[in-house]
Structures are given as C-alpha cells and as structure tokens.
Design a protein that fits this description.
heterodimer, A: 536 residues, mainly alpha, 16 helices, globular, B: 220 residues, 7 helices, 0% strand
Amino acid sequence: MATNSAHHGDNYINHEKGLWSWLTTVDHKRIGLMYMITVMFFFLVGGIMALLLRLELFAPNTAANVGQVLKNGDVYNQVLTYHGAIMVFMVIVPGIPAILGNFFLPLHIGAKDVAFPKINLASWYCFMAGAALAILTFFFKKIDTGWTFYTPYSIRTGTATVMMVLGAFIMGMSSVLTGLNFIVTVHKLRAPGMTMHRMPLFVWALYSTAILQLLATPVLAITLLLLAAEKLFGVGIFDPALGGDPVLFQHFFWFYSHPAVYIMIIPAMGVVSELITTFSRKVIFGYTAIAYSSLGIAAVSFFVWGHHMFVSGQSATAGILFSFITMLVGVPTAIKMFNWVATLYKGSVSFDSPMLFALGFLFLFAIGGVTGIMLATLPIDVHFHDTYFVVAHFHYVMVGGTLMALMGGFYYWFPKMFGKMFNETTARLSFVFIFVGFNVTFFPQFILGAMGMPRRYFDYIPAYETLNKVSTVGSWLILTGFLFGLWTIVQGIRKGEKAPMNPWRSKTLEWQTASPPPHDNFAVEPIVTAGPYEYR
Amino acid sequence: MSTDNIKHTHSAHVSHHFKDANQEYDAGKQGIWLFMVTEILMFGAILVGYAIFHNIYPEMFAEGAKYLDWRLGFVNTLVLIFSSFTMAISISFIQKNQTKNATIALATTVLCGAIFMCIKYYEYTHKFHMGLFPGHLLDIAKVHPEHANLGMYFGFYFAMTGLHGIHVLIGMGLITWLLIRTIRGDFHSQYWLPVEGVGIFWHIVDLIWIFLFPLLYLVG
C-alpha cells in the first residue's frame, strides 16, 4: 500500500510486512485498522438485513408481488434480531472507540501506544471470536428474540439463544478490555505537559465511555450467563413458571444496556467536538463544560434504566422517579449542544465533508434528543411504547448520532490514517445521500408511531402504507450514500493524492506527526505547552 | 511477538512504550485494580439476584442451605485465607530476592487452590449423588423438596460457587505460570509486577468466597 507516502518512508503500515505481522501486531494503529475492516464488514451485513426489513414493509402482505419479501413472520423476526444484534454489539458499540479511539487516543495524548498493547490485540480477538459465535447461530438455529433477549420468550423459544448470548458475553469482554486499556492509558501515559485539562475533548469522551464500559458490562455479562443457565437448566430466576421474575431480567439487562447507549453516543460527541472546533477555526466554547458533561452523562446514565420498563408493571413511584431522572440526561447533553452552537457562532466555518457530517450530527441528534425527552415523559411513553416512534427515536440517536459522527471522524482522520487525500466531491455526495435518505427513512416513522403502528411487526394495516413506502425509499437513498462513502474510501486509499501532515490545519497533537504516523507515533516525544484548540 | 520493539534502553523488562519501570508498574497495577472492579461488579449482580429471591422465598433458601455441609465450606474458607497469606508473603520474598522461599510460598498457594477444588469436587459429586441439581434437573423423586422451587436455590448455589470455582482454576493456572517464571529467575527486587497482579486477583477471589460462604452455607 503506502510505501513512500510518509515523510521518512517508514510508517506503521509498512513497518512490517505480511498478513501475519498484522494478525500478531500490538501497534494500536494497526489494531484500529483491523477493527475498521471488521466493523465495516459487520455494518454491511447488518445493513443488508435493514434493507430486507424495509423491503418487507414496503407494502402490506396483501399486496401483489411486493407484499412478502421475507417468507413469513418468523423469518422477519430473525432478520430483525440479527439486524439489531449486529448493529448494536458489532457496529455501534465498538465503532468509534475501537476504530478511531484505538488509533487516535495515544496520538492525542502523545503516547507511543496504549498501556497494554497485548491486551489490546487480545480484545480484538475476543471481539472476533464473540462475533463469530454470534453470527454462526445464523447457520444453525436462527434466533428470533430481538437483540434484547427478553425473558420468558428467550427461555422458551427453541433457538440458539445460548450460543448468541455467549457471543455477546465474549464481545463484552472485548469491550471491558478496551475500556480498561483506555483508562490506564489516559491516567499514566500522557506526554509531559499534557494535563487532564489539555486533553482533546475526544479523549475526554473516550475516557468517560471507558468508565461506562468498565462499570456496566460486567452486569450484562452475568445477566447473559444467568440467561444461558436458565435456558440450559431451567434455574427459574427469570422464568415466572418456576417462581422467577421476568422483569428482573429487564432490570439487569437495562442496567447495562442503558448506560450502553451512552457508550454508543458519548464517543460520537467527542468526535463532533473535534470537528466543530477545527472547521470553525475557533477555540471550542466551554471546554471544561463539554469535558465534564461527558462524565455527567456517564454518571446519570446508571440511574435511568427503568424508563425502558414504564409499562412492565413496575410501581408508579418508580416510573415517576425514572421519568424525572431520565430527563436529567438532557442537561449535560444540552450543555454540549449549546457549546457546539456557540463555537460555530462567529467562527470561520468551512464546509468540508467532515464538517458536513458534524453539522448533520447536530441536526439529527437534536431531533433524537428532543424525542428522547418526549419518551422520558411517563404518560407520553405509555402511549408511544413499542411503536415506531421509539424506533425512529433510537435510530435518530444511534444512527443519526453515532454513524454520522463515525463517518465525519473517519473522513477527518482519513489523511492521517492512510497518508492520502480522498475525493471531496464523492465524500460530500455520500453526506447528502445519507443525510437526506436518513430523514426520508426515519422521520415518517415518528408519524407512523404517533398513528399507532407497533414496532417489530412484519405486516400492517393499509392506513400505514404511504408512509412506509416513503420510509423504504429512504433506505435506498441511505444505501446510495454509504456506497458513495465506500467508493470514496477505497478510491482514496488506492489513488488518493499524498496527504500533507496537517490538511485541516488542526491544533491537536496527532497532526504534529507524519501522515501516516511512524511505528512509534512521534519521532521525538512531544512536550505540550498549551491547550488543544489554540486557534485565536 | 514480532512487532515488539527490541530497542530496550532501560532495564530488560520495561516495554518500549513506557518511560521507566515505575511508570510500567503504576500502569499495570491500575489495570489490575480496574479489572478487579469488573469482577466485583459481576459477582455483585448475582448477589443482588440472590438477595431478591432470598427475600421472596426465605423458607426455600433455608431448606436448600440444609443440604450444604457448613464444615466443608468452613474448611475451604480457612484454606483460601491461608492461601492468600502464602500468596502475599511470596511477593515479600521476591522483593527481598529470596527466590527459593518465594517458590515454596507460591507452590503452597497452588496446593491450597487444589485442596479447595478437591473439596469442591467432593461437595459437587455428593450433591449430584443425592439428586441435587440446578433448576429443572433437580431430582424431585429423590429429594422430595418441601418447596417446589428448590431447584432455584441450587441454581444459585451452582452458579455462584461454579463461577467462583472457575476463577480459582484460572488463579491456579496463573500462579503456576508465576511459579515457572520465579524458578526461571524472572522476578527479583526490581521487578515483581506480575506476582503482585496475580496476587490481587487471588485475594479478590478469596474475598468473594468469604461472601459466598455465609450467604450459602450459614444464612438460613
């Protein structure tokens, strides 16, 4: 690949050659790229599932020709489950921390590597093993429980739940190991002069995420093990027929999985902070507020899981409390939003493709966040529960938020990662199609949800047909956008012009080394004398 | 590993991305403690489950506890506490360059782990013999439980002690690895981080047992 693109010829890509040198590498940059390739593959698989689901919902099942794309409701449930499980466990949770975090966290703080390079590699293998186990279930007994594995259905259904949850368990270990590595790296390996308050905000976001990964994932781990035990031995902890409590499963599950949705979004917020300040050519407004609001979101996220269970039969008091605490998440989130907007104000904003994605993030995340407050409101949620309103909400947050930031961050750091520039025109086209397609797909789902269309169903009454058609057409636009994105990346790597050291004239440390960086990141250890965003 | 940087400018055991042995020691120790946090949380969740169901079905938990022999559990508790002691002094010996004593201490620790697992094996097989299995595998014809859901108690029993037992086995494997490296002379007064790390792991495993023993064997 890039044999003479670095300044001195030697970089992390050509430092050693051959597939084996990649599979045994302990270089965080190479591990980041390995995550990138695997996550992109899983995204493709999960995306195909999504397209199939939308195709099935293009028309009611009574319609000729297009009515039944998937054979029946069982197949629909399976595709739905794999779409959710793959996108959550293999794409959005590992996405930004494992790809961009691995690659840039040490560069950001002036370290040579993460604290435990071998554990870093081990966590990639854990991820691959868990993903393989989970995907293999598709070829034995498909699972149809949804990615949440709710009891008692997951205990009763005769499918490969045990294998799937073991896969998720192993992927959870990977997540814990990455988080642990990041925390220690931030604490112990900062370059001289790099105080906590001089760290880029992306590092702060990764740090908060890592704390969440460490504190939440073990609870999911034991929950999944208990679910496996329940399925194998009928222990009765979650099975009401044996005196167990199915709602306990939901408590356990969401005690992890609600913080997990912030594992998905906080890194995205970190990326957006970098993009907004760089492309506004202005010091970010409220650095400390943004940094600590990440920790604030992380802290509050542990006390809000009950909002997934407003209609589960938990007490009214619990519902009201969870409703109130959930709204508190809006406070640190709004702090970030307003600081980003304040940074844009009177900045010299340039609309390069990474910045387009960052602005797209602001727009979509605002909608996702506001509808989140609506759903946090107890009486509204009772009405919207398990409708397409919820589907639209979490897609706006998770896809509109995390994937927009991932794409933006990816374009932003592409020159550093590969030492090449990409085609700006196709990159912008990818943004336009993804952004427009995304709104065409998911905005109608808010209306569908408000009209009462339930989620997870594979058929619907004719009244919902028009909006569903619009939504499905939108999914094709998103596909087009990601194909443009893939084209941009592949062509950029193959034929891109040589990238300068700092194409965006950014101030953070990673731009002070060669593109692509040498094996040890910096030729000489950097000494930090100022904050990360000294623009003016 | 092939990409390990060989340009060690400091003493032989400092990895290339650390400045000095102190930094490596601090980082390693913090990593181990953070990992222990995840272990405690994992056991913490199952303890929450235990607490909830103990509260709902106190008489069932009392009935289940009757089948456990507290004497064996007590012996195991003593064995583990003693092994924690030998583990701790092994670090102290290494810090004083007393490799031979450290080897003996580590070997004793592994031996204690083995004794613990033997007693556990005896307890488990005895339970299986009596038809005491977890969940729906419980042999109702043999056991004649007073409480219909006695299988749940043994679900908790086997899940908690089994998960703990797996940790003991992992710990024994790690200490054996330390033993080999100690005999090889890898550790000395300048470098003992792996011994301390495994030691912390072993103490936590011990600590978890100290919670499990009264909850399963004595409460009821």
